[in-house]
Design goal:
Elements: H1 2-15, E1 39-44, H2 51-63, E2 72-77, H3 91-98, E3 102-104, H4 109-125, E4 130-135, H5 139-151, H6 157-160, E5 161-165, H7 168-172, H8 176-185, E6 187-190, E7 205-206, H9 219-235, H10 245-248, E8 252-253, H11 257-263, H12 272-279
Parallel strand pairs: 1-2, 1-4, 2-3, 4-5, 5-6
Antiparallel strand pairs: 7-8
Helix pairs in contact: 2-3, 2-9, 3-9, 4-5, 5-8
Length: 281
């Protein structure tokens, strides 16, 4: 009986889910995110869909959780490709969410590449890897990789930079040469679309989800979410910008967070409600 009891306890321990069935920090086809050494770049195109604003708020909510407070990350705004349409000005939100820990590629693309290159080089020379959540197109990523290759020819960039993309449309409006370059010169990972529930990644486009205020208790996070929603409502579908129907109906869309979830090994999060149940407090 003692053996059976011990066996039962061992099996139960193995099967016991971590935080709501979301197991952090494992993975990629070629590597795992190392929270002690690696850098996470979250790059938002902000053109012309306002979902990036909600994605920023969701990202900061995730980074505020004790499991992820040690993640070394940097945000970049304006990493768009060749799509038409107007930019969604995100600067007030980025300042509130990230402080000084972000770079404005919309204001000056070349300077932005140089600034992010310096940050990335520090990680690479300290034996860490770079993980890029391309919440937009890969044009900025291509120029960043080229700059790193030029400065660090001794490092095998293909194995040390991991790019994650969830959107077919984002690939379609990346400059073809840039997309081809990134696919050939990085560990490029195309994952299932974060707009859809039940396809292997979290689905974070939720037209009917409105009760985020019942979940978020941290005053700063409340301000970040409210500003993201306010700016989103101001620019959604305006002056020819893309009209996000989920946001128009009063819901949320932070589908770009699916890439971050994949990098951190959180693919088991089902949807928006599950996310808030796990990480809102």
């Amino acid at each position: 009986m003692k053996f059976k009891t011990l066996l039962f306890i061992a099996i139960a321990t193995i099967l016991m889910p971590l935080k709501g069935n979301a197991t952090p920090l494992h993975h990629s086809k070629s590597a795992n995110f190392n929270i002690e050494k690696d850098l996470l770049l979250v790059q938002y195109d902000c053109k012309t869909d306002v979902d990036d604003l909600h994605s920023v708020a969701a990202f900061i909510t995730l980074m505020s959780d004790p499991d992820f407070k040690k993640v070394n990350y940097h945000a970049v705004a304006g990493t768009y490709g060749i799509q038409e349409g107007l930019y969604v000005p995100p600067n007030d939100l980025f300042r509130l969410a990230f402080g000084d820990n972000w770079t404005d590629a919309h204001k000056n693309f070349k300077n932005a590449v140089e600034r992010v290159k310096v940050i990335a080089k520090t990680t690479l020379t300290n034996q860490g890897d770079i993980w890029i959540a391309d919440a937009g197109q890969s044009d900025f990523t291509a120029e960043l990789v080229k700059a790193l290759q030029a400065d660090l020819p001794e490092i095998n960039i293909t194995q040390r930079i991991h790019v994650v993309q969830h959107s077919d449309w984002n690939e379609e409006v990346t400059s073809p040469g840039s997309l081809d370059f990134v696919k050939k010169n990085t560990d490029y990972n195309k994952i299932p679309d974060g707009n859809v529930v039940g396809n292997g990644t979290p689905g974070f486009r939720s037209p009917d989800y409105t009760n985020w205020k019942d979940k978020i208790t941290d005053p700063k996070l409340v301000k970040i979410w409210q500003l993201a929603i306010d700016i989103g409502n101001k620019y959604n579908g305006k002056e020819g910008r893309y009209r996000n129907e989920a946001i128009s109906s009063g819901g949320l869309d932070f589908s770009d967070l699916s890439e971050v979830c994949w990098i951190l090994g959180l693919q088991d999060i089902k949807d928006t409600e599950h996310f808030f149940n796990l990480y809102s407090n």
